[in-house]
Write a structure and sequence with these properties.
The complex is a heterodimer of chains A (about 170) and B (about 190). With about 170 residues, chain A is α+β, with helices and mostly antiparallel strands. Chain A has four helices and nine strands; from the N terminus they run βαββαββαββαββ. Chain A is globular and about 50 Å long. Chain B is globular and about 45 Å long. Classes of the chains: A alpha+beta (about 170), B alpha+beta (about 190).
């Protein structure tokens, strides 16, 4: 059983998810993890599915892309082993005036501390730029990372907060 | 806990339940029992008292477990056990207790928080819960009706367990499409 990574992006319209999901369901492709979101009027789908071969999935998605409004890519990926982590979850929030390099600078600070970004989204709304990320940090680095993020944010003229996102287990 | 807090339970203690219950296997979603509203119980029935004791015993052996509802051990009944004693986020705490047929009668001071559940072991989610809560229910064994006023972590735990008894998981209440997270497997 092959695992496929599929991306679909195109001008947003009602029915993209239904169209793509229907094609995949007919192929017997089982969606596993996915994110689908609207990015400045483009609808972007990134998904992993299990079942068909690459060529079958490409052929099935081709008619949807035929009018040039949607771009679909399919590639085979190697199924990942059980994911483990030696880190604790944190939420990073950055906001401020838009300028070049905010994501690059802030995520470099995380990477240098061994932090792993597991989810990140950015929004530009007028002049305001917002970055939100879920990050796993190794033990005992949060304080140091917080200080480095603050210094980097000050250079960029943006605001930053890093807070623990430990769940309450009920 | 102070006397005023204990007052909500009267003189009820776990001793009312008699000998220790059995540790039962905890069921995980998508088990259908987790998504069906539990039935009302007779709090004085022997069967209910045994169920209450089993919930306490099972809660006790699970590391970090602060609450367990009957559907989580496969029983579709409105009974749950809670004990948030010693948790850093606990404000008012009533110690270890079991409630039957509990309902929320007042809820305010809503606050978002990330929570996880033994029956959904691989995911967590951001859920709004009331930080001030008044709950009414019956105590197993005596059948006495009690009214508990609580806050903070105990309030969150009670809402989570009352939801289980109504066939709801935290997944039914998450804040949005981006509010469910893969729970990390710690090394």
């Amino acid at each position: 059983m092959s695992e496929l990574a599929i991306t679909v992006i195109g001008r947003d319209r009602p029915g993209i998810v239904a169209d793509v999901a229907e094609v995949l369901a007919r192929l017997g492709a089982n969606l596993t993890d996915s994110t689908m979101t609207r990015l400045r009027g483009h609808f972007a789908m990134t998904l992993i599915c299990v079942g068909p071969a690459v060529a079958e999935a490409e052929a099935a998605l081709a008619p949807l892309a035929a009018d040039g409004q949607l771009l679909a890519t399919v590639r085979a990926v190697v199924p990942d082993a059980e994911q483990t982590s030696n880190g604790a979850p944190y939420v990073l929030a950055v906001h401020g005036a838009d300028r070049m390099g905010i994501v690059a600078a802030m995520t470099r600070v995380l990477a240098e501390a061994g932090g792993n970004v597991t989810d990140l989204s950015t929004r530009l709304a007028g002049a305001l730029y917002v970055v939100l990320a879920e990050v796993e940090l190794p033990p005992d680095v949060a304080e140091q990372v917080t200080a480095r993020l603050a210094a980097t944010a000050a250079e960029l003229g943006v605001e930053v907060t890093l807070r623990p996102a430990d769940p309450d287990l009920l | 806990m102070n006397r005023e807090e204990r007052a909500g339970l009267g003189d009820w203690t776990l001793d009312v339940l008699g000998p220790p219950g059995q540790v039962r296997p905890v069921v995980s979603a998508p088990a259908p029992v987790l998504s069906r509203a539990g039935g009302e119980v007779d709090p004085t029935a022997e069967q209910t008292v045994r169920l209450a004791a089993d919930l306490v015993a099972t809660m006790r052996v699970a590391p970090g477990c602060v609450g367990l509802a009957a559907p989580q051990i496969g029983v579709g009944a409105r009974v749950f056990a809670v004990d948030v004693t010693g948790h850093p986020k606990t404000g008012i705490g009533h110690g270890a207790f079991v409630l039957c047929n509990a309902v929320v009668v007042e809820a305010s001071r809503w606050k978002a928080g990330r929570e996880g559940c033994m029956s959904v072991p691989d995911l967590t989610g951001d859920v709004k819960r009331a930080g001030h809560l008044v709950v009414e229910g019956a105590l197993p064994g005596t059948g006495a009706t009690v009214r508990l006023v609580t806050d903070a972590f105990e309030a969150r735990a009670l809402q989570h367990e009352i939801d289980h008894c109504a066939g709801l998981l935290f997944l039914d209440r998450v804040a949005g499409a981006h509010a469910v997270y893969q729970r990390k497997v710690y090394l």
